[in-house]
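tool=predict chain=A
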Amino acid sequence: MSFRQALPNVNAPWFSYNSPMTSLSAPEHIIIRSVQYRDLEAIEALLAETPEIKSRNCPIDLSKHLQQIRQWYGLLKFVSFFPNPLRHLLCVYVAEHDRQLCGTIQVSPFNRTRSTWRVDRITLQRANNPQKTLPPLADIGSQLLRHCLDTIWEARTWLLEVNVNDKTALALYRQTGFQRLAQITYWSIAPDLLQTLATNEPDLPNLLPVSNADAQLLYQLDTVAMPPLVRQVFDRHVRDFKTSLFSALFDGLRQWWTRTEVVSGYVFEPQRKAAIGYFQLKLHREGNRPHVAQLTVHPAYTWLYPELLSQMARIAQDFPAQALQLASSDYQPEREEYLEKMGAERIEHTLMMSRSVWHKLREAKPVSLEGLQLPEVLKGLQPAPPGKPVPGRMSGLQSVPQIHSNGKHHLSSADFRPTDFRTQSPNRSESETRDPDTQKNAESSTHRTLKAKRWKAYRFRPWRRRTHSTDITSDKSQRP
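tool=predict ok
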């Protein structure tokens, strides 16, 4: 019997096998590992019978391209062993319980430096299984997410998108430490509306094609078009807007395989030497899927929205008539206002969430003002009644010795307490806080101290030493 089989089958505390840093993170009966070829059949069955939580920007859609993955699995596994642009093309982990596949997760890097990673898809086995042998749904999903956080050491920030109506996924992500970053709305422009937009002549005299030489301009446009927190999470650099030769070849092969075409361009402002607008169109030749557009506009040039949409509608006329889909964020109110005014249809609302690997961020619960007891809160700010001592402070009168009727001083322990002169009035002079004898003794002591300091400074001056030594030498020279 192995050590794992000897463990009692009880609800043990949460811990992780893969990382010693999180010793209390998952049940001991869930094993997380990388995907293998023998798991593809189980993943296909899992995708067919259970709902999935996926992002719109998956590098490889498992549900659609699983047959191609089975054919090219050896090549994809081989390119994952050395650095190349396709290394993380198939980054999938599976959760196994009693040799039964109960969940999968697919992740991919979000930027070129791989400092931000994205959760593309989570597929979980149903919790209401008839045998009641699988662990709870939240346990499986939480362990999959924590395994990615512990294993992928390059990632500093994690990013994902989830539908606002998916309460189960929202609860799972919030339990793992993800917080709201932005709200994204996806729009669909009907084909007849695209034909209407194509009749307008766009006023874009400085519309230029995109190349690697324009990466700096596109990076500046992307930086100014988003708030600082989103910019920090995305962590994009100039190299994210450049295309290498290998990436260009791979993109060309993928477009040929999927029967798509990508068209992009940007608007250049010659006076400011800056890019003020950018668009990218992904057009489908077969006509069975809608076209997808990516749009970025400088916040000071929102008048470019109708011009760029007219330009994209003209380009889409050369392809089969399909709807055009694009997204808008809650920090882009001008875009949402224009799309709603134009007649575009809202098709989905998603929530973009992020999490840092350095610490778990917990969402602050909203506090109701009705539950606050204002008198208790403001109790420390109320003035103290007259004659009541203030804690932490002592009056200067405690240092004054008591004077009896015979004129003699009676010393007590209160005479040796330190005096806090901050409590004394600034208008009172020093002589008013002391009796005549104490003031006289203090003045004589101060006078003696000052006189001793002056004599010491005069006695040990360097010039006096040199003069004294010169006088002695001169006296010796005059002697016979």
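Residues 1-27, 360-367, 393-434, 465-480 have pLDDT under 50 and may be disordered. Residues 436-459 form the longest helix (24 residues).
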